[in-house]
Structure formats: C-alpha cells, structure tokens
From TrEMBL:
Pathway: Aromatic compound metabolism; 3,4-dihydroxybenzoate biosynthesis. Coiled coil: none annotated. It comes from Aeromicrobium phragmitis. It is an enzyme of class 4 (lyase). Its cofactor is a divalent metal cation. The keyword Metal-binding applies. InterPro entries: DSD, Glyas_Bleomycin-R_OHBP_Dase, Glyas_Fos-R_dOase_dom, IolE/XylAMocC-like, VOC_core, Xyl_isomerase-like_sf, Xyl_isomerase-like_TIM-brl. This is 3-dehydroshikimate dehydratase. Residues 287-396, 418-556 form the VOC domain.
Length: 595
C-alpha cells in the first residue's frame, strides 16, 4: 500500500507540512497550488526537500474551471494551463488534477468538454504530463464520476484519465459499484475522505466537515474495495478539508491521518478476504480491569469511595498508589502526578492477549506509554489516547496478578459492582481523532451521536462500545468556548437504592437534583407516589424505555472527576441521556462550571 496526503489537510506552511508528512510515514503528497503560491521556497527547492524526505509528489492540484466554455475563455484557459505546466516541470510533478467546471461553464455539451480536455491533454503530453479529471459534487454540468468518465472516454487520450474522490461520490449518494467498469489504468488518482451525515449544502459540507477515514458515516470499506477491484494501483491519498485539522499541531494531525489509512486498508482487506495490508485482529475487550485517577492529593476522592462502600485494598509496595474496589470495579488512586486536581488518567482493559493488542496499537501509530516496573511486578503495556488518557491491556486475572502488589488492604464490604461506562470529555481538537483511536485500536463501534443541551451550549456525545457492553466509553465534546467537562466513572450495582441509602448514612453528599425534575418525572412516566418520593429523597435520577429502567445518582465533582452509581433493570441499554441536561445544570449551579 502506497499512501499520500494532500497538503490542504494540515496546518502550517508547506515546508512544515512536508516534514510532518514524512515523519508520519507517508510515501507521497498532493501539493496544493495555494500552498505552493504562499511558500517562499521555489518549486525547485520544494522538489529537493521532498527528495531528501523520501516523498514523491504524486499530484499537483487543482486546476479549476477549464472545460465547457466559449472559445475566448478556452484560449485563456490554455494559457493558464501552460503556466501551471511550467510550475509542474520545475516541481517534478507529472499529474495535475482538473476539477469539473463550477464557475465559468456555459456549454453543457459532452462533445465540447471532451474536445477541450483532449486539447489540454495534448499540450500536457508534449511535456510528459498527465491529466486527472474529477467530477466535483457541485460541478455546473459534470457532478457525477460516471459522467466524468464518459467524457474521458470520449476524449480518448492516453494521458487523460479520471480522479475518484470518495466525498464527491458518496456525498451525492452515487453508487460506487460502477467504478469497477472503469479500467484500472485510467483511474489516475484516488482521493479519500470520510464525513458525518449532515443535511446541508454539499459545498459547505465538503469545505468544512470532511473527516479522516473511520471518523464519519461513509462506507469507505466498500468504496475502496470497488476501486481496488477495478485494478487501481496508485496511492491511497487523503484529501480532507476540515477547520479543526487546519488549526491543530501539524505533526500530530499527520500521524492521525496516517493511522486512518492503515485502519481503512485493514478493514478493506478483511472485507474482501485479502491477505495483504492486514493488522493483527483487534483484541476484543472482555471487561474493564481498572480505572486510574491521578492527582497530588486524592484524600477527598478516597473519602468519597469509602462512603459509597468501596473497599480499601491496600497501598502499592513501590509507588504512592492506593487501590479501592467494589467487586469487579477497581479504582486506582495515584498521587504521582504533576497536577494538583484529580483527573481521570488511565483505563485498564482485560483481553485474551495483551501482546497482540499492543502490537496492533503500535502498527496504528498509537504512542507507547512507559511506566516504570520493578522486579516482581506485572508489566502492563499501554498507549496514549489523543487526549492523553492511557490505555493498558492485561490478559491475566487482576486478583492474581497486579492486585497482589497492594498490601495492607481490608476484606470486601457488601457493595459489589462493575464499571458500567467511563465518560471521557474531549477537547474540541481531539474529538474526531479520539473516535478513530477507540475504533481502530480497541475495536469499539460508534453509536449514533447526540447533542445534549448544557448551560454553556450543546455537548456532543458519542458512545464507543463493544457489542456486548463490556466496555463503554461515551466521548463528550463541549463547545470550543466552554470549559472541558469533568470526566466520570459509572459503577453498576444490583440495588442502587440500597447503595444510596448506605452512602447517605455514611455522610456522602450527592449532587442535589431540583424538585422540578421530579415533577417532570411524574408527568412523563406516571410513577407512583411512593417511588417518586424515594427518588426525590435520595437525589436519584430515573429513565425508562421499552426494554427496562435506569436509576442512578451522581457524586459532587472532585477536581476534574466524579462518580455515578447506576442500576440497569431489564434490558435497558442506554445512559439516562434525558437526565444529562439536569446533571450539567446541577453541577454548574453547585459551584463547578462545566460544559
């Protein structure tokens, strides 16, 4: 698999972008005309830099608004093209992208378009150059790749082919199956982009909301399968216009982009039954092994766990780390921290083979995490998620492996639970990368996202999970101008009312819920007075659907972390989403400003 990326995907100047592309492991680049125009370096200097970095210049793009015009405009277009051909020769690029005309086209005649493109191809052939004609989704007369291919066939020039762009094809709902009818050697270039499902004009959708493969709603696996079966042998190249990616660190974004192509190639090969470009299979998470919180002083959080009913399991024999558990729910408190306020720092996941899981993550370019391990201690391999959260793998039973490194613990108390879900708030610049990370590295599937109204604007929530719910990670994205929300761990129990009463008796303060919420519950669900009174007394929240019920409560926020205790009744599989606006408002109203 050869890979490439358009320089328009990245922030910074052209030289910075090229260094980042090489560092990320790309084989080639598409150089955007606008990036070259804005660079102080000459085309010869850019060519030499690419040679030193080991990058091929696979495409020069774009040349716009050429075909379907009157003769006077056509003559001027040929003049423009010759000037760009001069630049390409200096740059060392042999293929130029010509987009279907969106601005100056006045003649909707395929014969005219083919004649004009044919003359352009003849001029290019004199210089040893190729023309890749692409149908833009908003083209004036040509907006379908099948139409663009008919014109290329009609022009019948050996150095004139087509460029296929997944966005322009899938955003219009065009069937990509007909790609297999195009000879592979006439597909001169392939551009890949994902995108969320949005109801908006296609130009704005394209210019601002494209995503890297694996982050949106397009079926790129099937799309790429059609292209490869057609016989295409060129690079898999990314062309992603996205306002976020063009503001974030160029090196990190390039690595993020490269990961997306590795993931897509693996998924496509698996779907087609091919053996090339395969990764080790994603290690299916079997359970949450532990959750780790870091902070300089975690006494307040420790007191909270004690009042809920967690058991103190001891101190680590070589590190300032303590373990608390409630059955299978294990929370590690680590005071080896550079920040004072408690923060959710790591997730441990049980898998069948930790080495395979870590090897897959390495192949996807996930940054490895080092943690000092002393003699006699279990080494847990880990990588860092985009927001810095560390993900550890363990293929041994916790109680007979790393848990034995803690001394001075107490016998279990009656409260027994498990980690139901881990809610990770994401900075605005990390959200899309996090979706790709958790899907590619951990093999989690993305549920439909939803927007939750909060005091500072809409919070976008995207749940990443295993099919069986063994690992559930809701990702929350606050508006860019709002503070990043606190993160939380939800612990599942069998009887939340008993746990709540016990915790209340031991002095735990719950997040207070307004009376208006319970009046609304009565109206929505018709709960009997006794049930409603218990919920109100204990500040419990409630939800119900056709499959079951969900009862839960929240602790106050400590630093950047809080806990949620939940009970699922029947087949309820959600997260109490209707209660999220109440929780966000209550947290803000009780002294903690969150999104």
């Amino acid at each position: 698999m050869r890979t490439a990326i358009a320089t328009v995907c990245l922030s910074g100047g052209l030289v910075e972008k090229l260094h980042a592309c090489a560092a990320a492991g790309f084989d080639g680049v598409e150089i955007m005309d606008a990036d070259l125009v804005a660079a102080y370096e000459s085309p010869e200097e850019i060519r030499a830099l690419c040679d030193r970095l080991g990058l091929t210049i696979d495409l020069f793009q774009p040349f716009r608004d050429f075909e379907g015009v009157d003769e006077a405009t056509f003559a001027d277009n040929l003049r423009r093209a010759e000037a760009k051909f001069d630049v390409m020769e200096r740059l060392g690029a042999d293929t130029v992208l010509v987009c279907s005309n969106v601005a100056t086209a006045t003649i909707g005649d395929d014969e005219v378009a083919a004649r004009q493109l044919g003359e352009l191809a003849d001029r290019a052939a004199d210089r040893g150059l190729r023309i890749a004609y692409e149908a833009l989704a908003w083209g004036r007369f040509v907006d379908d790749y099948r139409h663009a291919w008919r014109i290329v066939e009609l022009a019948d020039r050996p150095n004139l082919g087509t460029c296929l762009d997944s966005f322009h094809i899938l955003s219009r709902g065009h069937d990509p199956a007909a790609i297999e009818q195009i000879p592979g050697d006439k597909i001169f270039f392939l551009q890949l982009a994902d995108a969320p499902a949005l109801d908006m004009d296609v130009l704005s959708w394209s210019r601002h909301h494209r995503l890297f493969p694996g982050e949106g709603s397009f079926d790129l696996t099937t799309f790429l399968g059609h292209v490869l079966r057609a016989g295409y042998t060129g690079p898999l190249s990314l062309e992603v216009f996205n306002d976020t990616f063009r503001q974030t660190d160029v090196v990190r974004t390039a690595g993020h982009a490269r990961r997306s192509l590795t993931w897509l190639a693996d998924r496509t090969a698996e779907a087609a039954g091919w053996s090339t470009d395969r990764l080790a299979a994603a290690a299916a998470p079997l359970a949450v092994d532990f959750v780790e919180v870091k902070g300089e002083d975690l006494a307040e959080l420790e007191e909270m766990l004690d009042r809920i009913g967690f058991t103190f399991r001891g101190r680590h024999r070589s590190k300032p780390v303590r373990l608390w558990s409630a059955g299978e729910a294990r929370i590690v408190l680590n005071e080896q921290a550079r920040h004072a306020a408690p923060q959710l720092a790591a997730i441990g996941v049980r898998v069948d083979d930790a080495a395979d899981a870590a090897d897959r993550a390495a192949a996807l370019g996930a940054p490895r995490v080092f943690r000092r391990t002393y003699a006699g201690e279990q080494e847990l391999r880990a990588v860092a998620a985009p927001d810095g959260t560390e993900v550890y793998w363990n293929d041994q039973p916790a109680e007979s492996s790393w848990v034995t490194e803690f001394d001075g613990g107490e016998p279990d108390q009656p409260f027994s639970g498990s980690v139901d879900h881990i809610n990770l708030a994401q900075p605005w610049q990390d959200f899309d990368e996090a979706v790709l990370f958790y899907s590619s590295v951990l093999g989690l599937a993305a549920e439909s996202s939803m927007d939750v109204p909060g005091p500072s604007g809409l919070v976008r929530s995207q749940v990443m999970r295993t099919d069986d719910g063994a690992l559930r990670i809701p990702l929350n994205l606050a508006p860019p101008t709002a503070p990043v929300p606190a993160q939380h761990v939800a612990v599942r129990c069998e009887d939340v009312i008993t746990v709540a009463r016990h915790a209340r008796e031991r002095g735990l303060l719950f997040l207070p819920i307004p009376d208006n919420y319970y009046d609304d519950l009565a109206a929505r669900f018709g709960l009997d007075a006794a049930t409603l009174e218990v919920l109100r007394e204990l500040d419990l929240l409630y939800d119900r659907d056709a499959d079951g019920e969900f009862v839960h409560f929240y602790t106050p926020i400590v630093g950047g972390v809080f806990l949620e205790i939940v009970e699922r009744r029947g087949g309820y599989d959600g997260y109490g989403a209707p209660n999220a606006p109440v929780r966000l408002a209550a947290q803000r109203g009780n002294g903690t400003v969150t999104a």
